[in-house]
């Protein structure tokens, strides 16, 4: 059996749920998705139209824990806002159990979903590098121009380090946005 702890937080209220799931390569991804979906959407603290932030970890025997982090803005379609979370979790477990080298032994799943009022989403208008070539070990600056759901554009700067064990003398880095 695989223990799954699901914590749902909205404002100062918190609800913790505990489940035990069957450990089976074909069933576990579906069971994790169904349990997550129902644990969120059937929760008395849950409400539609909020931004949901998913964090957590999946502990695997003999491996470093898999860290989970994603944010889901409410959609305009008729599906529940908790469904994308369930699908992402199902996809993660599908990938874990389709490993050709080793079927993992899942020791524990801990998921936390925080509900934040309103729609917090951004689209990337453009992205670019300060320089197009780099050597192994270089720190690159990536700039991203974001358009929030409502409001003014925001510019963010991130650093990206090229791995030191890359082959070759020069590394070409490509950053792309949706404009082509």
What descriptive keywords fit this protein?
180 residues, alpha+beta, Dna Ligase, domain 1, 2 domains, 5-stranded mixed β-sheet, flat
Give the spatial strand order of the biggest sheet.
2-1-5-3-4
Secondary structure tally: strands: 10
Which sequence of SSEs, written as H and E, runs from N to C?
A: EEHEEHEEEEEE
Q: Which fold name fills CATH's third level, the topology of the largest domain?
A: Dna Ligase, domain 1
Q: Count of helices?
A: 2
- Whole-Å distance between the termini? 47 Å
Q: What's the architecture of the largest domain in CATH terms? A: 2-Layer Sandwich
Low-confidence stretches: none
Largest sheet: 5 strands, mixed
Helices, strands, pairings?
Layout: E1 2-10, E2 13-21, H1 28-41, E3 50-60, E4 66-72, H2 83-97, E5 106-117, E6 122-129, E7 133-134, E8 139-148, E9 154-161, E10 171-172
Parallel strand pairs: 1-5
Antiparallel strand pairs: 1-2, 3-4, 3-5, 6-8, 7-10, 8-9
Helix pairs in contact: 1-2
Brief overview, please?
The protein has 180 residues and is of the alpha+beta class. The protein contains two helices and ten strands, in the order ββαββαββββββ. The longest helix is centred in the middle third of the chain and has 15 residues, at 83-97.
């Amino acid at each position: 059996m695989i223990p799954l702890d699901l914590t749902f937080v909205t404002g100062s209220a918190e609800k913790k749920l505990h489940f035990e799931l069957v450990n089976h390569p074909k069933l576990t991804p579906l069971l994790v998705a169904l349990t997550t979906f129902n644990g969120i959407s059937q929760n008395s603290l849950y409400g539609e139209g909020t931004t949901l932030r998913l964090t957590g970890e999946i502990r695997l025997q003999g491996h470093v824990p898999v860290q989970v982090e994603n944010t889901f803005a409410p959609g305009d379609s008729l599906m529940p806002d908790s469904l994308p979370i369930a699908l992402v979790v199902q996809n993660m477990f599908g990938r874990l159990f389709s490993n050709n080298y080793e079927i993992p032994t899942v020791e524990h799943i801990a998921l936390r979903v925080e509900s934040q009022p309103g729609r917090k989403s951004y689209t990337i208008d453009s992205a670019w590098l300060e320089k197009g070539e780099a050597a192994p070990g270089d720190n690159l600056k990536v700039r991203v121009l974001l358009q929030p759901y409502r409001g003014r554009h925001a510019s963010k700067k991130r650093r990206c380090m090229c791995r030191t064990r890359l082959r070759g003398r020069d590394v070409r880095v490509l950053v792309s946005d949706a404009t082509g």
